[in-house]
Amino acid sequence: MRKLATMITCVLAFSVVSHAQSAPKIHELKATTRTVHRGFFDASLKPVLTINSGDIVKLETASGNPRYFEQLGVPKEKIPAELYDVFEGVDNAGRGDHTLTGPIYIDGAQPGDMLEIRIRSIDVRLPIAGQGFVPNRGLLPEDFPQGKDRVLWLDLKKKTVEYAPGVVVPLRPFWGVIAVAPPAAMGRVPSGPPYVFGGNMDNRDLVGGTTLYLPVFVPGALLSIGDGHAAQGYGEVCLSAIETSLKGEIQVVLHKNKSLKQPRAETPTHYMTMGLNMDLDEATKIATRDMLDWLVEMKGLSRDDAYMLASAAMDLVVTQVVDGTKGIHALMPKSIFRKNK
User: Fold this and answer.
1) Domain 25-261 top-level CATH class
2) Among candidate residues 171, 193, 130, the one with its CA nearest the CA of residue 322
3) Of 121, 141, 149, 238, which has the most beta carbons under 10 Å away?
4) Treating both helix axes as pointing N-terminal to C-terminal, what angle do 303-313 and 280-299 enclose, rounded to 10 degrees?
């Protein structure tokens, strides 16, 4: 009897140890001068954090150079102190939207693999935000030859912003930029236009509870995240969303030898493909073709049937039209795919 009790104790102890070993590790990555880079992606960047597949990262992103807010008349005491730390040494008064946290090195990731980035949660972390447009940019440069900037104060409890008296916009935070490093041969790439490695996709549907898939081009993948948006409409027509600092939690899962041509995503209700091109018509074709490929691969449909199904059930959405490389994303509802009885 004593021997049996000892054996049960050992089994239970082994079970606890095995669970502890398999549980994902949780990392914290705050936005500081040492953990951000600004305005570019580069395969030669040194990682600020190394994680394993399945690990969880609680991270912060920062948008809002204090000098930008100061020049718009905000007293220094009303500007969060942590922004002064993140933007220490910045020699201009730009808002600094593309202040990117990372890169994060995923152990074992190699070119030809795929990252699954589960966006577990996103929230606004500071009440101050900025928005503006500049000459010769945005969708309607001929209508707005001047520039304009404004400060917006976010209600973190109500999750709203009063845009004007009687005009209240609900907050729906997401990161405008999520990217892996581009191929090393591309060198340093500006973070403005999105590309096959992700980047400045400005996709308002990538909120908490969604999953983004990105191809890997360099060892470690080198994942960077930033460009926090408190709210944005499809299109982002004036060039800027409500730009602010966010916090959130992601889980990164590595899929070995799983090739991917360009970003894909899933929401709880839809499969999503993304077309990125200077020409909006071409972006539409890219998103549609990739959805057809995915349906053939995932659901076993013929390409002809997938094409007709897309016409019957798929929605095409204008992601953004102001980043040089324009975006379209296709949404296919999951609810139409039912298990065989």
Assistant:
1) mainly beta
2) 193
3) 238
4) 120
Which CATH architecture describes the domain 270-336?
Roll (3.10)
Strand partners, 71: none
DSSP-based three-state secondary structure for 129: strand
Average pLDDT over residues 302-311: 98
Instruction: Give the type of residue at 86.
Output: V
| Dist. CA 40–CA 132, nearest whole Å | 21
CA angle 60, 66, 70 (to 5 degrees): 150
Q: Which two structure tokens, joined as six digits, stand for 106?
A: 């995923």
**Structural contact between residues 125 and 71, judged by C-beta atoms closer than 8 angstroms:** no
Provide the pLDDT confidence category of residue 339 given band limits of 50, 70 and 90.
confident
Check if the beta carbon of residue 122 is closer than 8 Å to that of residue 137. Answer: no
What is the DSSP pairing of strand 99-106 with strand 49-51?
Answer: parallel
> At a CB cut-off of 8 Å and minimum separation 6, what does 84 contact?
66
Q: In the chain, where are the structural domains located?
A: 25-261, 270-336
pLDDT tens-digit profile of 33-57?
999 999 999 999 999 999 999 999 9
* Contacts for 163 with CB less than 8 Å, ≥ 6 apart: 152, 169
Polymer length in residues for the chain:
341
User: Token pair for residue 260?
Assistant: 């991917």
